[in-house]
Amino acid sequence: MSEHDYAPIISYLGPEASFTHVAAKELFGQVGLSAKPTIPDCVEAVSSGRATYAVVPLENALEGSVPLTIDYMFNEHDLFINAELSIPIQQHLMVNQAQANALDSIESIHSHPHALAQCHKYLLYQYRGVPLIQSTSTAAAAKYVSENPDKKIAAIGNQLACEKYNLHMAEENIHDFHFNHTRFVVLSQKKGKLEKHGHTEIPKTTLMVKLPKDDRPGVLHQVLSVFSWRKLNLTKIESRPLKTGLGNYFFIIDVLEDEEAPLMKGALEELKALDCSVRSFGTYYSYEQRPTRPN
Amino acid sequence: MSEHDYAPIISYLGPEASFTHVAAKELFGQVGLSAKPTIPDCVEAVSSGRATYAVVPLENALEGSVPLTIDYMFNEHDLFINAELSIPIQQHLMVNQAQANALDSIESIHSHPHALAQCHKYLLYQYRGVPLIQSTSTAAAAKYVSENPDKKIAAIGNQLACEKYNLHMAEENIHDFHFNHTRFVVLSQKKGKLEKHGHTEIPKTTLMVKLPKDDRPGVLHQVLSVFSWRKLNLTKIESRPLKTGLGNYFFIIDVLEDEEAPLMKGALEELKALDCSVRSFGTYYSYEQRPTRPN
């Protein structure tokens, strides 16, 4: 609980110094943040009222399984998206301060399997043959390095973990793909746009559309016509299996328009007329964190 | 290396007894399987010729980050899909044989964070308050339980891990969502259909389509028309960000047709005429493992 009685509680996918923690801090500051071990725990904290917001990874995530977020949003709870934040994936190599001069003799490198994979080429060229040890999170790897000053080991993780565990930054930005982002969403029980400085000008609406039972070829094409002739711009479309058996799908569609705009209202009406079932996760703004250079 | 000099080497996302191992065994049997620590390691084993096939998770995965598979397939290597296998996600609670009669006094439950999340409701109802300890894989949790017969601990994982580490099956099928599948693909350097008993009758082709630079609203609609008027059935469509900056997308489209069929050839030609860049990952069969009851 924060020192302000009225500050909201924000549950996020932990542990502390995870990439989701970076996202939560960027949007909400330091106060009221509460780390949870899994995505369902984050979501449930909000639906039970113990937290006002949940921050969870939605796309291209490092530490969470993205289908998990979608499954829990779709199947379990009536939650809405209040904001999204896109942060660049920046992975750094860090060692204990006591080992700052021993970078040539690193004996093992620790991190979450996804982070190790994201730095695959760097590790192949710079540390070929050095054993890679998997940890449960990038933050756990940083913590382990901080607790073992005598070991010649390194961790891969983000800048927040480097600061929190007071490590020496050995090499910055060792990830293979630049321009790679992770997209986080803020969920709550209420529709509404979380307003902060620096958001995009055009709000976005996320829809889940279930096609009519009669799933003939071309029905998706018909659904997209609804948006196309209104010149509504889609920034994402993804088919996801329904959990009712193989071959049944729903679609997640992001539209660059407010759901209250007349064209959108028309589109939603028309989808229903086509016998689609449509659920809106609300309209929200997108925020974007720019790459930072540590120190 | 296998005992047969000519048997192919199959790299899969490890460790042993992972869900990907289950998939690899189902398709290739026991011989020639080689566990790799990350998805890029699996892919690189094939593109360097050290392995003939790679088995990696593609969708709704437990132990791998799915965007990683797509990123490495799209950006890095000229690989093709030779088969896909869908296996049901079945999570079980298992304890050391020495603790088979002490299920009421379990003091902690160990597993990969995704597996813990997939059994969220079961754990909430049956083991509320029991600490959940994260491990790097479901197999690592099972191994830990097998090595600590005196501890009152349990692991969550698949049947293969239960067998490999000779654990006692305490409760079967404790996952929250039934009908949940993970989709694995077999990659190789050559196009071709891996033929085994029990595949689907209709082959599937996976395409990656990059829209023309002129990314006006409705261009995706135009792309889908290409398939729609030919009555080609799409089983998946997903937009993925290109790694060249925000707002640039490509599409992954699965079509239920052989790429050599006349209608498909026409569709691919027409996509190119629309100024799309199209890459085919080849045509392959889908296999499906049915849920099994352990023992």
TrEMBL record, chains A, B:
Its EC number is 4.2.1.51. Coiled coil: none annotated. GO terms for cellular component: cytoplasm. Transmembrane segments: none annotated. The keyword Ribonucleoprotein does not apply. InterPro entries: ACT-like_dom_sf (IPR045865), ACT_dom (IPR002912), Chor_mutase/pphenate_deHydtase (IPR008242), Preph_deHydtase (IPR001086), Preph_deHydtase_CS (IPR018528). Residues 9-189 form the Prephenate dehydratase domain. This is Prephenate dehydratase. It comes from Sporosarcina pasteurii (Bacillus pasteurii). The lineage of its organism: Bacteria, Bacillati, Bacillota, Bacilli, Bacillales. The gene is pheA.
